[in-house]
């Protein structure tokens, strides 16, 4: 085990933390704003995209959501689709935590912080997307427990807000604690982070199940009203999370001095090989039930896959998604991480995109088409929605990049507490 | 004095540039911020307001309407009467699909004129089938067509309302007389209720409603037909500002065929009770267990 509790170390006076924690924050700020040319170029690009999104959002705020392509028929679209996907990404990050902590996979354990930082960034994205979807963001305080009027336990949305916030706090605590201890040159005390890690495993499943229940609990929307939705969400989360981390780990390995062993990547690929197939199986089960049964309940699936009464805006999207997911599954199974890592990378990219469609636009929009009175009004995101969505993702990537940069600086001992400050 | 490195200067310049770009990006929001009032922001939930607080809120809303639309209106807080449970029934045998009800709803409830909004959607259905899939809300020919029948749909004021169940902030609830209402000043605009409703009964204010001052119905109430703010949900309340004062819903008054029957379900001598006891009555999507207060029936 890499983390063993230091024994016999003298108890440190409290004044130490008072000085060293501000120092930690100050140095973290330095690390976050300092880097090579490529770092500056990347961050500038992300900031630019983020600001374009902010500008589009202020436009939407002033003129109302009438500036989007949403209507009373399709009243959720791009934002809620991305929200669903981002929650999955956050939950999927736990696929590193499980091998690292439950199965004591050493090499995964060394880089598990990457997964935990992804969880933080993805929750930021998820909360960002719900926020830009709100008609009255100024009234958000109405949802605060005790201060506002939270309709708990009746509304699944209140459950989602609670579990997402707690998941964010758990991961912030674990990442913050581990980095700070490392920064001080001390071994982390398992008492202060292991219980949180184990809770986070259970919690990851809960955030995505609750998000699925948001939709599957609605009797008036047959396309969502299926018990298989939560398992499907979990399966896709366990594809998207590991796929993202496989690519992220290679970027970290190439661009920094942080040691990323092949073992961690191989573990994630093994997980992907199972979860990809599981996801395809669940999609197949859903499609069989929809199309074999037939009747009005099939209308949304019919619209999504083949078009309905001449309306077929989503058909190219869903077949692209299906093709990408099948291709990714095949590529993953015929490629070896030793010889053809690039093929694995392509598979991961295809899976990320395929799931993004399947679980975003491909899940949310058909829930509304046809409408509850069986009218067919189509929806595709417009320019404002694309700008705002890219802006939210850019914010997530900024958080992820800075988190990684801080972690690498601490783990490679580039960022350490200054000894003079530790003398009381 | 410590030497300032070139890198620090560049970082400082970059930070300033970023801050300037951010300020530029959010500049249009000043129009939105200017419209916010502290009183409105801090206003408590409808059920938590005292009599005096409610009076202040109503005065503020009246002043706002006058400022925005140049018209004096009276906004009341009309409460439910004890011993009353409202129910509504519609005779499909004689409805001719003229959509006068939808039009009356628009005028009575101060709907957005640009989108031609109304709480009522009339479906033209194929005779011989109750399948909504075979109906359409968009028809522009003379009515009634011989092979069709017509089915107006509006809020069913369900006793087991999915919209109320899902609202995260308790901004929509069922009143003691059975009407499902929305506190427009408490709603956060998440539209979960709109996704949950199986009857397409809810509407969102995608923009601030467009309505000319002279078209505004000045007889308004807090929970029903006052002009709604941008970004919140709204819905049919059976015109609670009328029915709670002993009048009939606007859609019923205007109906040329007398297809609509409205009344107190607790009154054994009411027409609605007679219809429910003697006609072939059904509710829409009964299998969903929503228990509507809106009934359809056939004469023959």
Architecture overview:
The complex is a heterodimer of chains A (424) and B (300). Chain A is an all-alpha fold and 424 residues long. Chain A has a single domain, classed as Formate dehydrogenase/DMSO reductase domain (Formate dehydrogenase/DMSO reductase fold). Chain A is 70% helix and 0% strand. In chain A, helix 10 (299-306) packs across helix 11 (315-334). Chain B is built from ten helices and twelve strands. Chain B is elongated. At the A-B interface, helix 2 and helix 6 of A face helix 1, helix 6, helix 7 and strand 7 of B.
Provide the low-confidence segments of chain B as ranges. none
List the domain count of chain A as a whole number: 1
H and E string of chain A:
HHHHHHHHHHHHHHH
CATH class of chain A: Mainly Alpha
- Main sheet characteristics of chain A: none
Classify the helix fraction of chain B into a percent range.
25-40%
What is the name of the CATH architecture of chain A? Answer: Up-down Bundle
Describe the global form of chain A: globular
Please supply descriptive tags for the structure shown above:
heterodimer, A: 424 residues, mainly alpha, Formate dehydrogenase/DMSO reductase fold, 15 helices, globular, B: 300 residues, alpha+beta, Alpha-Beta Plaits, 2 domains, 4-stranded mixed β-sheet, two-stranded parallel ribbon, 10 helices, 29% helix, elongated
């Amino acid at each position: 085990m890499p983390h063993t509790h230091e024994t016999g170390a003298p108890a440190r006076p409290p004044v130490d933390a008072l000085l060293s924690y501000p120092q930690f924050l100050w140095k973290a700020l330095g690390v976050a704003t300092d880097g090579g040319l490529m770092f500056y170029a990347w961050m500038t690009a992300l900031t630019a995209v983020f600001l374009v999104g902010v500008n589009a959002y202020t436009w939407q705020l002033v003129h109302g959501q009438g500036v989007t392509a949403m209507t009373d028929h399709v009243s959720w679209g791009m934002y809620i689709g991305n929200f669903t996907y981002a929650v999955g990404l956050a939950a999927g990050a736990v696929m590193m935590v499980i091998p690292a902590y439950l199965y004591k996979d050493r090499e995964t354990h060394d880089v598990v912080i990457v997964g935990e930082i992804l969880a933080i960034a993805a929750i930021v994205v998820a909360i960002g997307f719900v926020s830009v979807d709100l008609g009255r963001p100024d009234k958000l305080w109405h949802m605060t427990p005790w201060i506002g009027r939270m309709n708990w336990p009746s509304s699944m949305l209140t459950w989602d807000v609670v579990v997402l916030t707690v998941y964010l706090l758990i991961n912030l605590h674990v990442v913050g604690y581990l980095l700070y201890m490392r920064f001080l040159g001390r071994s982390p005390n398992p008492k202060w982070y292991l219980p949180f890690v184990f809770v986070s495993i259970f919690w990851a499943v809960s955030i995505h199940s609750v998000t699925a229940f948001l939709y599957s609990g609605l009797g008036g929307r047959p396309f969502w009203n299926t018990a298989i939705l939560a398992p499907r969400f979990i399966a896709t989360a366990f594809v998207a999370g590991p796929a993202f981390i496989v690519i992220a780990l290679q970027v970290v390995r190439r661009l920094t001095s942080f040691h990323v062993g092949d073992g961690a990547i191989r573990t994630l690929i093994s997980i992907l090989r199972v979860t990809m197939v599981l996801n395809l199986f669940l999609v197949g089960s859903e499609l069989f039930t929809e199309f074999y049964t037939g009747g009005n309940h099939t209308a949304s699936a019919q619209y999504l896959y083949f078009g309905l009464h001449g309306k077929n805006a989503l058909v190219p999207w869903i077949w692209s998604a299906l093709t990408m997911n099948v291709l990714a599954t095949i590529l993953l199974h015929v490629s070896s991480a030793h010889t053809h890592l690039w093929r694995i990378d392509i598979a991961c990219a295809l899976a990320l995109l395929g799931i993004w469609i399947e679980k975003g636009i491909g899940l949310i929009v058909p829930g509304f088409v046809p409408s509850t009175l069986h009218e067919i009004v189509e929806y595709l995101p417009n320019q404002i929605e694309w700008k705002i969505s890219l802006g939210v993702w850019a914010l997530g990537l900024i958080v992820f990049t800075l988190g990684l940069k801080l972690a690498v600086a601490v783990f490679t001992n580039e960022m350490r507490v200054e000894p003079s400050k530790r003398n009381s | 004095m410590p030497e300032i490195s070139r890198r620090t200067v560049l970082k400082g310049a970059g930070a300033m540039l970023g801050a300037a770009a951010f300020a530029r990006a959010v500049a249009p929001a000043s129009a939105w911020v200017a419209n916010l009032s502290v009183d409105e922001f801090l206003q408590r939930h409808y059920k938590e307001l005292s009599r005096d607080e409610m009076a202040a809120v109503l005065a503020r809303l009246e002043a706002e309407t006058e400022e925005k639309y140049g018209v004096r209106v009276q906004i009341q807080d009309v409460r439910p009467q004890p011993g009353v449970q409202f129910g509504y029934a519609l005779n499909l045998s004689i409805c001719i699909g003229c959509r006068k009800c939808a039009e009356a709803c628009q005028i009575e409830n101060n709907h957005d004129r640009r989108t031609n909004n109304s709480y009522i959607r009339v479906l033209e259905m194929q005779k011989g089938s109750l399948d909504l899939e075979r109906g359409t809300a968009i028809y522009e020919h003379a009515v009634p067509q011989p092979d069709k029948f017509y089915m107006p749909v509006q809020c069913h004021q369900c006793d087991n309302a999915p919209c109320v169940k899902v609202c995260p902030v308790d901004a929509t609830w069922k009143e003691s007389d059975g009407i499902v209402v929305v506190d427009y000043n408490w709603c956060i605009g998440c539209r979960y209720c709109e996704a949950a409703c199986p009857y397409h009964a809810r509407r969102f204010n995608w923009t601030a409603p467009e309505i000319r001052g002279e078209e505004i119905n000045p007889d308004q109430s807090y929970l029903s037909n006052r002009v709604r703010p941008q970004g919140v949900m709204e819905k049919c309340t059976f015109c609670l500002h009328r029915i709670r004062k002993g009048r009939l819903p606007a859609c019923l008054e205007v109906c040329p065929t007398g297809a609509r029957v409205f009344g107190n379900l607790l009154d054994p001598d009411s027409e609605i009770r007679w219809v429910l006891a003697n006609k072939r009555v059904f509710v829409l999507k009964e299998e969903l267990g929503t228990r509507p207060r809106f009934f359809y029936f056939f004469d023959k």
